[in-house]
Design goal:
The chain is of the alpha+beta class. The chain is built from 8 helices and 5 strands, in the order αααααββαβββαα. The protein has helices at 14-50, 60-67, 86-102, 105-119, 122-138, 171-176, 214-222, 231-245, and strands spanning 148-153, 160-168, 183-189, 197-203, 208-209. Helix 1 (14-50) crosses helix 3 (86-102) and helix 1 (14-50) crosses helix 8.
């Protein structure tokens, strides 16, 4: 039995269906497209950096034409080749070779001699020491990576911020900033660029550790709070868009 107040649910119109389908497509395509674009761009950047240091005779274009018997780049038979990604392979092989040599006795002696020469050069010394310190920090071993994501009250009480626990505070900082329960060093990243931020020293009792992983916390910071570490909820949102489009 129906009453005058009973109404049938309205079916979405054509425009609403197209809009839902478009949003669903964006959700599916955007991560894949941006990932492919980023990888393609990085490969091209590495190729452009490496190839100027490789003689033309040993580049893919020179090797292929020399194999085919072509010697004149201006001739019609000359084949132009642009193989993207070979520069990355050359860079990886060169880096492995340098690392293998640097681990040996001769390599360590050469590095010490080169660093001694750099230390006696005023301007180059400052640049080299800064870059070396950054490289050692970025490519440090796993024990120097962030331990956990945490929640702290920053920049004042009542305002909370996502941060990353680096390690227990040591050295002069721990001695001068005395605290009964100890202190921890935390890194507070900025949004949307988490590579910059602030190094703060907090008492352990003021730091709330989170269950989310470092990667999930980084996603939350980069997205300015739009992407929460709940893949089930995100999947339900995509499925909801797909149901609206059908």
């Amino acid at each position: 039995m129906t009453t005058p107040f009973d109404t049938e649910p309205k079916r979405p119109g054509l425009f609403a269906s197209l809009r839902a389908s478009f949003l669903t497509g964006i959700v599916v395509i955007a991560p894949v497209g941006l990932t492919v674009w980023l990888i393609w761009t990085v490969i091209g950047w590495v190729d452009g950096f490496v190839w100027p240091f490789v003689p033309e005779a040993y580049q893919p274009e020179g090797l292929i034409n020399r194999f085919l018997g072509n010697t004149d780049p201006n001739s019609e038979s000359w084949i132009n080749v642009n193989i993207r990604g070979v520069g990355v392979i050359v860079f990886l092989l060169f880096t492995l070779a340098v690392g293998w040599v640097a681990k040996g006795l001769i390599g360590r002696s050469m590095i010490r001699a080169a660093e001694g020469l750099v230390d006696r050069t005023p301007v180059v010394r400052s640049i080299y020491s800064g870059i070396k310190q950054i490289a050692e920090t970025v490519f440090a071993q796993s024990e120097r990576s962030f331990e956990k994501a945490c929640l702290i009250e920053y920049p004042r009480r009542g305002i909370w911020a996502i941060a990353f626990i680096s390690t227990d505070t040591r050295g002069e900082v721990a001695q001068k900033a005395t605290n009964q329960n100890g202190m921890v060093s935390v890194f507070v990243p900025t949004t949307p660029n988490p590579t910059s931020g602030f190094l703060l020293f907090f008492p352990k009792e003021d730091v709330i550790e989170l269950d989310m992983s470092i990667e999930d916390a980084a996603k939350l910071v980069i997205s300015a709070g739009l992407v929460y570490p709940n893949p089930d909820k995100a999947r339900e949102g995509v499925e909801e868009l797909a149901r609206k489009a059908s």
